[in-house]
Amino acid sequence: MNAPLYQRIQALEVAVLKDNKHIDTISVAPRKTINTREEVEQLFSKALSAGEEGIVVKRKDVTYQPGTRMTKNGWFKMKAYLGDNELDVAVVAIDKGKDNQVTYQLAVRDGDKYQTITHCSSGLGRVDRDYIYDLATRSEGPLLQKAPPELRGWKIHDPKGGYIRREHWIVVEMTAAGVRDGQFIDPVMKRIRYDKDVDEVDTLKTFESYEEVCSYANYSYGCGRSENMFQLLHNSKLSDKSPSKAKPRKVTKRMIVESSEFS
């Protein structure tokens, strides 16, 4: 796994998957070599037009680093986050989610009640997350084990998690890559809305109409060329110029073994 991507693919194709009789279950994903950001944008727009969620971009000379799929490493996903279709929601509970990440229950208004609509573990910096936790736990004691009467919340799974007291709910702005079967795809908290009170969060009706907005936006050209996408490309190591060709290295037995373990 210490070999760069292009050598790992070569090892798979010439050794591990040579004369592969199980192509329906084991295969190397289709790929295209590009040189500039403009080509990435074109592939991204093409994927959205085909109804795909996005694309994965990898530098051909990058080595595999478990748990570090980040823009600065030249290995990242590009999805069409709906930058013009944010929702203002209330942070109402803290729990543990996938891979033991801290996750938050986000809620919208439904009459005089609030309804949890999603879990979210992405977005916001450490300072903002610490602020939410401190506000929720240090003012009047630990998190609640039962939802406050104003909230129709989801079940808490982590013994150390719990519901936040109504007076300590805060408003955050969130967006997502879309909605499928009533569930957000990759929701992200963008910022804390210090200028808004909890009574001003979006309504359940707005959330229910969000899926229609997402379906339209995912097929629009404007969504494919969002500011988020440009920022992602700007932060990546992709260049506007063609890179110099990497000197090829001979595929060794060790590489083949490592590629077998990787696959």
TrEMBL record:
Pfam families, sorted: DNA_ligase_A_M (PF01068)
PROSITE patterns, per database record: DNA_LIGASE_A2, DNA_LIGASE_A3
InterPro entries associated with the record: DNA_ligase_ATP-dep_cent, DNA_ligase_ATP-dep_CS, LIG4, NA-bd_OB-fold
Any GO BP: nucleotide-excision repair, DNA gap filling
Compositional bias annotation for Basic residues: 244-253
A GO molecular-function descriptor: DNA ligase (ATP) activity
Region (Disordered): 239-263
Ranges of residues in domain ATP-dependent DNA ligase family profile: 1-98
Any one Gene Ontology cellular component term annotated for this protein: DNA ligase IV complex
Name of the featured protein: ATP-dependent DNA ligase family profile domain-containing protein
Annotated source species: Cylicostephanus goldi
Lineage, highest ranks first: Eukaryota, Metazoa, Ecdysozoa, Nematoda, Chromadorea
